[in-house]
Amino acid sequence: WSSDDVTVIFVLGGPGAGKGTQCAKLVSDYGFAHLSAGDLLRAEQERPGSEFGEMIKTYIKEGTIVPMEVTVQLLENAMRSSIESGNNPKKLFLIDGFPRKLDQAHAFERSVCPSKFTLFFSCSEAVMEKRLLHRGETSGRADDNAESIKKRFRTFVETSMPVVDEFEAQGKVVKVSAETSPEEVYREVQKGLKERGV
Ligand code: UP5
Ligand code: MG
Question: Which residue stretches, if any, does this entry annotate as coiled coil (predicted)?
């Protein structure tokens, strides 16, 4: 595809900020394809015969960032499938939980497609921790426990916030407070998208 006819919006925010929840709402109202980097990595980890399974498992448990070659390839494959399926005629993509390291951001925008902007959910660690521990009671996610959550928070602050800061400096961030109810947050999201012509 050419980057002129594909629209990519990055969706960033700390662990448990509500990226997946808000993306699901946008999918049903705007027809975006939703690609969660974390979901793609978890699926790859489960795929029989994957050469990356064990490695991905370790990175996720430790809350660190899987080497970008793996993630960029999974995203690119998922974008291609979405376009080829015919179910995404406008080629609209929400890329959730990516890029969370500067090297990934630069590689993706250079080799796949520049983003239109980044939707950024800001949320305090106290609120995010509460949500994740609650979800951990039933999610089965290997990283929804107090120890992994602490590591994910540290990676977010040290490694992922610099990505948001860089996009912010380029005037490419729509920031939404994610502390209120999902419906309230979504109203702010819709307002933010409208201001950017989406
Ligand atoms: N909830 C949501 N919104 C709420 C609201 N407004 N009020 C009250 N509750 C709300 O929500 C989390 C929980 O909170 C849910 O129970 C929800 O009902 C509730 P969710 O929408 O799932 O939040 P989200 O931001 O998507 O949280 P998630 O846990 O998915 O965020 P992470 O960024 O930590 O997870 P991700 O799957 O993106 O990544 C996992 C790991 O994969 C990373 O730590 C990393 O090791 C690896 N990874 C990479 O290596 N590279 C990548 O590029 C991406 C991931
Ligand atoms: Mg998520």
Answer: none
